[in-house]
Known about the structure:
The protein is mainly alpha-helical and 460 residues long. It has helices at residues 25-33, 54-72, 85-96, 108-121, 148-158, 183-186, 206-219, 224-227, 240-244, 250-260, 262-285, 306-314, 320-332, 337-350, 355-365, 373-382, 397-404, 409-414, 444-459, and strands at 11-15, 37-43, 79-82, 99-103, 124-126. The chain is globular and about 75 Å long.
Amino acid sequence: MSSLPAADRPILLWLRQDLRLADNPALAAATATGRPIIPLFILHEASDGRPWGAASLWWLDKSLRALEADLRRRGSRLILRRGDPAMIVPALAEELGAEVFWNRLYGQAAVARDSTLKAELGGKSFNASLLVEPWTVKTGSGGCFQVFTPFWRAARTAIPDAPIHPAPKAIPAPPHWPASDDLANWRLHPTAPDWSTGFSAWTPGEAGAQERLHAFIQRSLHAYPEARDRPDLDATSSLSPHLHWGEIGPRQIRAAVDVIGGPAADKFMAEIGWREFNHHLLHQHGALFKQNIRRDFDRFAWRRDPKGLQAWREGRTGYPMVDAGMRQLWATGFMHNRVRMIVASFLIKHLLIDWREGEAWFWDTLLDADAANNPGNWQWSAGSGADAAPFFRVFNPIVQGERYDPNGDYIRRWIPELAHLSAPAIHRPWEVGVAGYPMPIVDHTMARRRALDAFQAMGR
């Protein structure tokens, strides 16, 4: 521990998934002290048990560059280190004689590590990423919610009236800066071949997050309840990658949406509520990507089907709505939420492939891959999670396409082989025959029957 008086100690501001200056409680508290602040980011590749996916690292590279520029404009800078925070943070705090401030994470591994560091260093932690933290929302019996609707009803009444601090105009700098890694040496951007060229529509960073929020409110929020399931329309916020890295916080979103109010705002905030629900599950159950929340699914007889898995990854299943989604994912690092449900249902129930295979692919290829949302949503699709869709709910990918992409515009965009077809033929291309596009790799009726039989066998 430092021998400096508290008033003279600099503050080591440990940033993680809170890469913004506005509505950053740890930064606001540090700035209020008037003491020098050393912002720190540590690349911890084994965070919560597994390394970040390639698409997430692409985003992180751009987000850190944007944050560095924002800090420089305020007389500060970002210190970069790579390795285990449990080793780096205490050593750097000792070197600088610093007090450590940070914003909390909610995975069990992160909570255990941070609790140890707080006991060792006496640091201060804050909430920057949730409207309500997991230990503040309980059932009437004192337990954790396992069903979303009562959870969100209780959570909405428990949201604290916390201030949203603006970004500071200046950040006090220390007289001497510690050594820092060079971001370019981390090589987070893919080298040849550069598979990220289709990511150019995204603008990582705090400014990009604010622009996307305001554009969504102005153009799409009013029609959100009716249009949110239509991948052929620009009707969703696409804020999830910004939320994942904390370039914007849910309090900021809530404040902006509440200005509009009404049913559309309530529906959109329920989606933010689902994000909260998944983070509460992560805190309660641990590494969601490893094990079923419903342990009876440990008995499920998954099939090993490497060819089917590869066809699904490449968007070559012969079902246009599935293939369009998988090709959108590979090209842009993103997929419309309705289509995520369709492709997940297909992998799990049509092919009977373990949901963990799909979750791992999304973890590597999604820009918004999140330790709570990604496995939480996959478990919802599999029926193995909390408040999950029942396994016997098997999406018909043909009907889903006809219902949510009625003119075939979404399919047409991502599957050029089918661009010449009009609806309804584009949803059933095998009926007209299309050169260069595969026949369905599995029959829907047979697959549905097989899936239901496997579910019944699990129960026995």
